Amino acid sequence: xxGIGIILWKISVALYLIANGVLGLTKYSxxxxxxxxxxxxxxxxxVTIASVIALxxxxxxxxxxxxxxxxxxxxxxxxxxxxxxxxxxIEIVGWITxxxxxxxxxxxxxxxxxIMVLASLLIASRKFG
Length: 129
Fold this sequence. Notes:
This protein has 129 residues and is mainly alpha-helical. It has five helices and no strands. The protein has helices spanning 4-25, 31-40, 44-64, 73-97, 104-125. It is globular and about 50 Å long. The relative contact order is 0.13.
């Protein structure tokens, strides 16, 4: 039996991926992928592709908790992690070059959240965890 922390972590990563997948596929909000690809200047088709990948990866991660293993799960999660890493770099460059006087603590808080998501994705992919 795995510890409660690992179980909760897997559930949270899976729900995060599923929620962003669903949000990206609905017309109500694109979720994080809408923000990420919007800031990168890419059209909506990238939001749809990333959302489908995230949705499938999240479902695969949940299925793993029931001993259902899908060989492509790690690859899908790694793709989302790469997208997230590129986004973090773009955000850091944006914060550094931005002429606005943003609150440093707010910037650090958002950076920490982005890094936590990236770390969770990398750990979930098993390629880096």
